[in-house]
Specification:
The structure holds two protein chains of two kinds.
Chain A: H1 2-29, H2 35-40, H3 53-65, H4 88-98, E1 102-106, E2 109-112, E3 131-136, E4 142-152, H5 154-172, E5 177-179, H6 184-188, E6 191-201, E7 205-214, E8 218-227
Antiparallel strand pairs in A: 1-2, 2-3, 3-4, 4-8, 5-6, 6-7, 7-8
Chain B: H1 2-24, E1 39-40, H2 48-54, H3 65-76, H4 102-105, H5 108-124, H6 127-130, H7 148-162, E2 172-175, E3 178-181, H8 185-189, H9 196-211, H10 219-231, H11 233-236
Helix pairs in contact in B: 3-5, 5-7, 5-9, 9-10
Classes of the chains: A alpha+beta, B mainly alpha.
Chain lengths: ~230, ~250
């Protein structure tokens, strides 16, 4: 009888310690210094703020709906990937093969950084990417992709941006929207006057190239491709 | 003693979880809806909580929103809907009469709202930045967060107040879902851990939107707007991450 009572007390104490420890861990994860760790763990389950692939899909569709063009794209360049076809496993295989490190900040989003030019099938050293963001729909297909390059010199950045613009124009024709001409003199100026941008808007495909000279990032170049068929 | 520890742990966990999750709930970035329904109502005294409790129809990222915005923009005078060929940022220089304020040149509240909507839509197309809008992309919008319409209206009021409009910021905005009291810039972004790199990417996307058709903002006005945005950098970027490159945010709104 006494042994049974003691066993129950020990069991209750162990449970209390375990539960108390678990709660303390939860508390610590919410402390400011650990918030990013909590985010990496999937976010606070109480707040339920983690963006799901379905929610990301809905946002992408809604954001693209009003901008979609009437014509289908003659081609859908997207670096070395294929929108609506490349899958998560394909990207993982590419990363393993090329030695590129990729992380999954949330389900449906893969961030690869840095990405050497060769991994993108280019021999142009300027084609190297600081960070490549790849987003997949709820079915695991690549639907959104951005390559960011920063700290480009004015001359080298302008030269690369113009080659990029030319390569898109060669397969897509003139952009639907354009401002600035991606020239070195423009990139040499800081802030708003440095901005150059071009955009394509088809019924099934968006592409954007934007460059701006900022104090922290230097000349920052954004190369963005997105599926818009759905 | 064990039970005291348990209760202490539980209390700490609940308190910090509430403080953490819900105070973070007070820190969400902008997002679209473009409905343009939210209006500033300085007299409204509804609390943020009651506003969110009243929110029922989600962010309302309707397919037709952008079309509505385009139409709104044409009326507002910020856009020209003209040729997609050569509308560089210099296009509007000649029109910058000394008699007009930046607010007027941007088309007043409606014009600025149109621009905000276009910016947020573009930011939503960016895979990582989209994550910061997670609360507004949920239906219903989680308690403690403004809906998309309210958030855009807050952003519109902020820019308007900086551009010479009569709007004040922070203020209270109202829409069909209720009222939301906009928070100051620091509070809004305090727990988002935005890095200097992420901030620059946001600015680059926004500047690209405003530089190109259908917008016809002059180079000098664009510079002023960029200065306004850059002026908020120290308030938005986490000090510890000011020199960090882009950092993916994986649990938007946390």
């Amino acid at each position: 009888m006494r042994a049974g009572s003691r066993a129950r007390r020990v069991g209750a104490s162990a449970a209390a310690i375990g539960l108390g420890s678990a709660l303390a861990v939860v508390a610590l994860l919410h402390a400011p210094f650990a918030r990013r760790l909590l985010a990496r763990a999937g976010g606070c389950p109480i707040a339920g703020m983690t963006l799901s692939p379905e929610q990301a899909d809905a946002a992408r569709r809604a954001a693209s709906a009003g901008e979609r063009g009437r014509l289908r794209a003659p081609a859908r360049p997207a670096l070395r990937f294929t929108l609506d076809e490349t899958r998560v496993a394909d990207v993982r295989a590419w990363a393993a093969q090329t030695g590129v490190e990729c992380k999954d900040p949330r389900k449906g989003l893969m961030i690869c950084a840095p990405v050497p030019a060769a991994a993108l099938g280019s021999s142009d050293p300027q084609a190297a990417v600081d960070e490549l963001a790849l987003e997949f729909d709820a079915q695991g297909r690549l639907v959104n992709e951005t390559a960011w390059r920063s700290h480009l010199g004015a001359e080298a950045g302008a030269s690369f941006a113009r080659r990029l613009a030319s390569s898109l124009e060669a397969v897509l024709g003139p952009p639907q929207t354009r401002a600035g001409d991606f020239d070195a003199a423009r990139f040499a100026r800081p802030g708003a006057p440095s901005v150059s941008t071009l955009s394509y808007r088809y019924s099934d495909y968006f592409a954007d190239v934007t460059a701006m000279n900022l104090p922290f990032s230097g000349t920052l170049l954004r190369e963005h491709y997105m599926a818009a068929a759905d | 003693m064990i039970y005291k520890a348990l209760f202490l742990g539980a209390g700490l966990a609940v308190a910090t979880a509430l403080a953490g999750c819900s105070s973070d709930d007070n820190s969400s970035p902008p997002k679209p809806d473009a409905g343009g329904d939210a209006t500033t109502d300085a007299a409204a005294d509804a609390t943020a909580d009651s506003a969110v409790d009243a929110a029922a129809d989600g962010p309302g990222l309707d397919a037709g929103d952008a079309a509505d915005v385009a139409a709104d923009g044409a009326d507002a005078g910020l856009t020209d809907g003209g040729d997609a060929g050569d509308a560089t940022t210099e296009a509007g220089d000649a029109g910058d009469g000394a008699a007009t304020t930046l607010y007027e040149r941007l088309g007043g509240h409606a014009g600025i709202r149109t621009a905000i909507n276009a910016i947020v839509t573009a930011e939503l197309n960016e895979p990582d930045i989209r994550t910061y809008f997670a609360p507004q992309l949920m239906t219903p919008v989680p308690a403690g967060h403004p809906n998309a319409d309210q958030l855009e209206e807050c952003f519109t009021d902020f820019i308007s107040s900086q551009a010479g409009g009569t709007e004040v910021y922070p203020t209270t905005v109202t829409d069909d879902a209720g009222a939301w009291t906009c928070r100051n810039i620091v509070t809004t972004h305090a727990d988002l851990y935005i890095s200097g790199g992420t901030f620059d990417r946001f600015v680059t996307i926004a500047a690209g939107v405003l530089s190109a058709p259908p917008f016809t903002i002059s180079a000098s006005d664009l510079t002023t707007l960029a200065d306004v945005l850059n002026g908020t950098k120290t308030q938005i970027v986490a000090p510890s991450l000011a020199d960090a490159g882009e950092l993916p945010f994986d649990a938007g709104g946390q």
